[in-house]
Every structure is written in C-alpha cells, then in structure tokens.
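Example with several molecule types.
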Amino acid sequence: EDQVTQSPEALRLQEGESSSLNCSYTVSGLRGLFWYRQDPGKGPEFLFTLYSAGEEKEKERLKATLTKKESFLHITAPKPEDSATYLCAVRYDKIIFGKGTRLHILP
Amino acid sequence: DGGITQSPKYLFRKEGQNVTLSCEQNLNHDAMYWYRQDPGQGLRLIYYSQIVNDFQKGDIAEGYSVSREKKESFPLTVTSAQKNPTAFYLCASSMIREGTEAFFGQGTRLTVV
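Resulting structure tokens for the full complex:
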C-alpha cells in the first residue's frame, strides 16, 4: 500500500534550537515530493518540490532534502513565527499526504 | 489574481441533507483534487480529476460525489450517505506534468447538526 509517514507527530523547540522533520514514503513511480506549511484554519501553503534523490532546496530557515525513500525538512535557528503544521506529500498518479508534524517554537 | 476559490468558508447543514461545496480555479490547471481534514489529522483524498468529464475515487470516496463539466470547476457534494460529514474540506489544483505541486484554496468548514 502506498504510504507517507511523518515523524515526529509533534515537536516543541526553544527559539534558536535547530531540528529536523522526517517524511518516509513507500510509493512506486514517485513523480515528486512536496513540503507544505499549514496554519490553523487555513489551506496548506506550498514550500518546496523535490524530484530526484540528492536534491536540496532552501528557503530562509528551512532546507529540504530527498533520498530514495525519505525526505527531511531541516529548520535552522527557528523563530516563534515558524510554528505551524508541516505536511509532506508525494505524487504518483495522484497526490497523497502524511499526517503532518505540529511544530511549536517557544520564545 | 490567479488562484483557487472555495465557497462558502463556513457551512452548516442538518443531518440527512445533501450539500455542495464549490471550488473554482483560474490557474488553467488540468488536475483538481478534494481532500478532507479532521482535527489533528493530515489530508485524506476524496476524489481527483485529471481532465474534464473524468474523475477517480480517492481513499475515502464513500458518501461523496463530484462532477467536472468545466476545466475551472470541481464541485463536491456531501450526501446523506456520508456517516460523519463534519470536517474541513480542501480543494486543490495542479498541472499534470511530473514534479508539479498542487495549490490549495482556503477551505470550507462543514458542520452537520
């Protein structure tokens, strides 16, 4: 069965404390892996697309990487405004999502 | 402005009534999707469509129906057969080319009482 698994489910960090979120997938014929940020009550906001193993993308304090079976979202020196749910999705003939990681950055 | 519009933002219905959620996009995307999100959960795929007049069931299609008569529009009907319809519903669209991401509307929160 095609699956996307994110860990941890929730993460609390102090401001400035760097960490990583994980997304593992069991999908054949991957046609792209995506990271989104979602704030409460809002639609997901697109962050990154990764397509090939070894690929990396960066945006401000976020860096996404991709291997053959998993992706990591690294957050460096986070700020309270980075608090949100981070969703991972994969595309083959459709787009499916993991359950997300709820990130809370304490000031 | 290009984007995806979902309406209404909040919707209340009585149990046993069918209700239709609207989704319109002006991004010229071929593919459109409907997802359901429950509190503290990720997004679960209800239906998707890659071309006008064609659509496929996702993981939780029971109790829902869709149509795709126009490229820009993909309405979702929540029928009385859906046992637990109260949820946050999200519509998305994308190009069908490999590696292209989906863009989302702001969602409709449906409450059935």
